[in-house]
Amino acid sequence: MTKVDEIKALAAERVVEIVGRYVPLKQKGKEHIGKCPFHDDHTPSLLVNPEKKLWHCFACSAGGHGGFSFVERMEKGDFLSTLRRVADMLNVDLDEGRRISLAARQEQVEPVSEPQFEYKTWTDAELILMGSPRNDDGTAQWTGEEMETLFNLYSVAHYTMPPSATGKTGKSVRRYSSDIFPIFTYRYEDPDGRHWGRLYLPFNKRGSKFYYWPSGRSHTADVYADKHLADALENARKGRAHEKFAHVLICSGGSDAINAYKHCHQVKKSHSLDGEDVEKAAIHVCWLGSESSHLSVENYKLLNKVAGTLYICYDQDETGVNRMHAVALQYINIHVVYLPVGMNTSTEGRCKDIRDFFKSYTHAGDKGYDFALWLYTSQSVKFWTPKRDKQGEPNGKFDLVTSAIKLFANVNGIYTYAAPGGELAFVEVARNMVRLIKPADIDPMIRGKMEQFVKSNTHHYNLELLETINKTKLITDRTMRLLNPIALNFRYPATDQDYFVFRNGIFRITRKKIEKVTPAEANFYVFEDKVIQHDFTPIDEPPFRVHYSAACENLMRIRREAAHGSVEWDQLSRQIGNMPGVEKYCLEADFDENTLSYIRYIYNTGRTFWQKEKRGERLTEQEQKEHDLNFINKCWSLGHLLRKHKEESKGIGILAIESEVLDSEDADGRSGKSLFFKYMKLVRNVHHIGMRQVDVDRKSDTLLSGVRQDMTDLVVLDDLRREHRAEYFFNYITEDMDVRRLHCDPVSIPYKESPKLAITSNYCPKLDGSTRGRINFVLFSDYYHAATPEKGYHEYNPRMEFGHELIDDYSPDEMNRFYNFMAACIQLNMQFPEKIEPVMEHVELRSLKDELKTEAIYDWMERTFSPAASHCLLDVAVWRDELFDEYKKCLGREYRERVTLKSFRTKLMKYCSHKGWLLNPNILFRNPTEIKRGDYRKSRGGVDDHFWYIQTQELTPETKRAFADLTVAPIPPVPPPPPLPTERVTKKMMSVN
Length: 993
Description:
Layout: H1 3-13, H2 15-20, E1 26-28, E2 31-34, E3 46-49, E4 54-57, E5 63-65, H3 66-75, H4 79-89, H5 95-102, E6 105-109, E7 116-119, H6 124-129, H7 144-151, E8 153-161, H8 163-166, E9 172-176, E10 184-189, E11 195-200, E12 210-213, E13 223-225, H9 227-237, E14 245-251, H10 254-266, E15 269-271, E16 277-279, E17 283-288, H11 297-306, E18 307-313, H12 318-330, E19 335-336, H13 354-360, H14 371-376, E20 384-388, E21 394-400, H15 402-411, E22 414-418, E23 424-430, E24 433-437, H16 439-456, H17 463-471, E25 498-502, E26 505-509, E27 514-517, H18 519-522, E28 526-527, E29 545-548, H19 550-561, H20 567-577, H21 581-584, E30 585-588, H22 597-604, H23 610-614, H24 621-642, E31 653-658, H25 673-678, E32 686-690, H26 696-699, E33 714-720, H27 731-734, E34 737-739, E35 747-749, E36 756-761, H28 769-774, E37 775-780, H29 798-802, H30 812-831, H31 841-851, H32 855-864, E38 877-879, H33 880-888, H34 893-898, H35 901-915, E39 918-919, H36 928-933, E40 936-940, E41 943-951, H37 957-964, H38 983-992
């Protein structure tokens, strides 16, 4: 039994389960009943019999054997897609089926001198594959005899080719068709009696779907047609009397031609524009020998002899439309037929031709999707008609046809485009590139193309026609708003790939390589403004490499050997996830004077211990690893912002802050944060918002008014003030982005199409779980700094270090290295899907000091709870109120009067958490009242009083017993803060820089 037979047999055994996936069934005796999905069934009339393995509807007579036939009828797909669908339902591995689908079964036989074919009777599955509608019982409406007599198309049982055709010697190869790999051939006869044709292998994956036979004979320039049209063409070619047809359609291939012919002849009535039913005129079809063939002048003249009106309808993808437009511009009397707008882009390329049209739009009587009506209402690009005198003779003057002008504009790539949530715009589309056209420019652009067309075609050249074009008032931005719209797909699968679009081509970036691709391979559009105006060449050796450390690799190796989801696997995963970045990642890079200055600048901004380096001291291994981690973190963050890929479960923004704890409320920064994001505009479309002068409370609704869907890749909120609060913008990171403009309705950009968010600030946000989950920090040391006399710093910036402006002064070679670095950042982000953070101790300390409100509070806590203090208050009980009184002494008078015990407890808990200590451990509470209040009680002078306990080490049984009987001592006086540095020390600090 073959894999196909196995799946069919299993689907028959489980027919109730399979039908039940589509229709709710109820058991009634030995059968199951439900409402039939193949007609408007109000009372259950579908019966499923598991014993007989049948399903049948007593109302519409639909029925069949087993679940396979039911899925085939429901999904309306071909045999192979149905087989895969059923296999998925049954959890059957179809690997063998996939191998069969790649090639026909074959064997070597005795050599033959001519191609030999064994034909067979068409099956319903093969007819349905070619586009035949189904009867109520699931059988095909078309017949194999019609396919053979009308289109010379035969179903092949097997065929044998001469050894020369297969490149083998001595033996011929015979290939057999099967249910999963059908074989067809078009078969024609020359006047001398010799046969030739073309094989059609619809499921072939290893090569072309079409092969001419005999070998070496190609008829790519020939015109193929249905039998009636073919006879007329042959007679016209030989100068004999021939039939003439009202409507002849040029299709992109035989399959489309068969579908157009059969469907249009099957429906006897068609809707006219006024809604009345009229008798449908016959449509005859033809196609060229190859989909890439161009219609020759000879063939065009021949078709004109037998056609009243000549139409063309090619695939609705970019390639097909461009070829159709080229034919329409060369032969301007041909009518151009478009299928429904967006049919190709809305299905991501799955629905693009006439056969797909009849699969997706099956309501032949519906006005909107009647193919014949689409055909008859099409027109040519000939945008003028001659004026005539009273006798009907041309008088040498011309009228312009508005509808034809619009089609002419479309054929030249000019459309209207409805940007999501925006106003209607004019665009010019050339291959993958889209250029926005200002309304004032649409008139001269279209006039110019019309004049150029007339001037470049000598048989159309006419001075009066050019004058008419020049004087017409039909072309305005108002009238051209009725141009055909175009659906533009700016998105592409970005999970494991990304793209840079340069003026010299489109480059695909994957985890391991950067390669140039054709526009057809890219299969997405890009605005011309987003094309990078540089030539790009991938560099073999990346500017840096990052890999896991040996310790991390070892843990990963052990985890791979453990059972997924086991306790051991979970423990190892937590251990890997909690491993500090300095121990987890390793940087391979050789940065020297020849390294690109932008890369050196990024590394320098993370040099936390730069002063030690300038003093000539050697960094410890841990300090060097911290510098490397800061660089890796910045490159990963750049890659995240540059990538199009977005996951709702992993939505993060990038926040750039100083690693140094800032004392001043008016923090100056100047550490290079803005430069970090500034040059991303050379790669992506960046919407920059300077936040220093923005009043968020007043302008929050229109803050993002400049953001445009399909255009904006990144929003940078630069220089947030303390009162802005970064948390206010976090909803932009994980939710749809609402864009509001003055006097316009708000626009909601879906999450996956919204720009990513980057923030720079001199202030650290509140470091809670929400912030840690939504933000990846990038830290900037004070390696670059403004002049700061109190620190002894002179101004130091990248220009002073490198002797030129970053990027602005780069040569073409340096720009190429810059773009290769940006691509390497994307590859790094792909390589490590987890968030790569810097050493977070700096951020945590900044957050803590910010939440403690003043530096004095932090200093007081450092002195009070220092393990080196003469009276250490750690791991001992201390009176709560006495500690609170000492705390208030470090506060200003105004704040001292308003501070509460609750706020003090909150700050102390945060301080203890930062230190890794625990305030008031639960294990020491002795009754429910203490647990509820959150502190301990003890009698003091006959009155209950309260005390706290800061745990820094493990509580032993002896510790717990001692705690229960402990007499709490008063709080010792806190030592004063150390004196400020002397002038001599300050001068020494200044000399360091």
